[in-house]
Amino acid sequence: xxxxxRIALADFELxxxxxxxxxxxxxxxxxxxxxxxxxxxxxxEQTSVAQARxxxxxxxxxxxxxxGEKRYxxxxxxxxxxxxxxxxxxxxxxxxxxxxxxxxxxGQGLMTAALRYFVEQxxxxxxxxxxxxxxxxxxxxxxxxxxxxxRVLENDREGPDGQRCATWVYELPPQVKS
Length: 178
What we know:
- The protein has about 180 residues and is of the alpha+beta class.
- It is built from four helices and eight strands, in the order ββααβββαβαββ.
- It has a domain at about 5-125: 3-Layer(aba) Sandwich (Aminopeptidase), CATH 3.40.630.30.
- The protein has helices at about 20-35, 50-65, 110-120, 135-145, and strands at about 5-10, 15, 70-75, 80-90, 95-100, 125-130, 150-160, 165-170.
């Protein structure tokens, strides 16, 4: 797969991590904490601009490594809309996908467009992702772009209510060569 520094989509761009995004990144995480904490174990109640900048610099460094996560940020002008990461596994034959949106921008088809772009570009790479059994929106997104649920890991994670819940594993095989 190819990972250019900037990908222009119809309504926004996907860009590599950039320190200039630090304030918008911190704002998106802080604004979205109430929603993110329900499903994302890494969510923290308050992210400073310095913490966001450090995270962006680390993500930028990882991006350039062959086995490092390729983390793209969805941006429109100076506005940070969300993030989508692809972590290579098995020498790049498979990628684990992760994503989140700024809570102000859910339900607008942004992550569908971003994820669909990579689905269409995957070539001989397979994709997989996991989602909480309680995260209906993430499940719908995965299925909308062609992923199929292949496994359920019972009592695998903490759910939004603090109780144990299942993790659903989704896969998308490589594209068939014609």
